[in-house]
Predict the 3D structure of the following.
Amino acid sequence: MNHIIQLRGISKSVKEPNGETRILFDDLDFSLSENERSIALLGRSGSGKSSLLRILAGLDIGYRGDYFYRDQLLPRTASAMAKHRLDHIGIVTQRYDLISDLNVVRNVKLALRGGASADEEAEKALSAVGLTGFGNKRVRRLSGGEAQRVAIARAIVKAPELLLADEPTGALDEDTENEVLDLFTSLGDSGARLVVATHSTRVADSCDRRLLLEGNRLVEIP
Ligand SMILES: Nc1ncnc2c1ncn2[C@@H]1O[C@H](COP(=O)(O)OP(=O)(O)O)[C@@H](O)[C@H]1O
Ligand SMILES: [Mg+2]
């Protein structure tokens, strides 16, 4: 089977605030194959969902194990991982990581490498998340749900092959969550893959596969 992503034998420990070392992942495997569109990552708070997404995004290279993208082993260097992320990945982080003093459209354009059509692309992404007309608003004046949708717009604006989303509907009401789910479905229709950490049963049920982080590894949930 051809894989888009494969993590093999991932091990990682973290230092707890009290100074103790805790094993987070122990020989963990993860894969997303060519014929899959979406995977939900489930697990209790603190089980490592955000940490796993950071590894997938190339934001964390402090682990043991191998990361293959389209069957190529990625060199585990900051520069190779940054290139991988720029080329292939859009990420919605749990805390959004927006720049609060910039307006909405400039935040979305942070994901683009300039270009004549950047404004147009940003507007298109904002309209996809239901934020037409919000471009000139300052991020710090937005509600939590609006800020979350700006973060989603920024993640999708360059039409990434892989969208990583960390509890992307946590701040959204049910109707807005449905809109985001529809958006993920249409991104999937155009070929994007989604890995989403979520506590939402509806988001999890909408995915092709569900994986639970438990006991330092991933367990398949039927
Ligand atoms: N960079 C880091 N340094 C130290 N500890 C970390 C770091 N990242 C995560 N952790 C710890 O790893 C554990 C898992 O965190 P996280 O991945 O955020 O879990 P989840 O997203 O499932 O709630 C937590 O105990 C957290 O304190
Ligand atoms: Mg988390």
Summary: Strands lie at 3-15, 21-33, 38-42, 64-69, 72-73, 89-92, 162-166, 193-197, 209-214, 217-221.
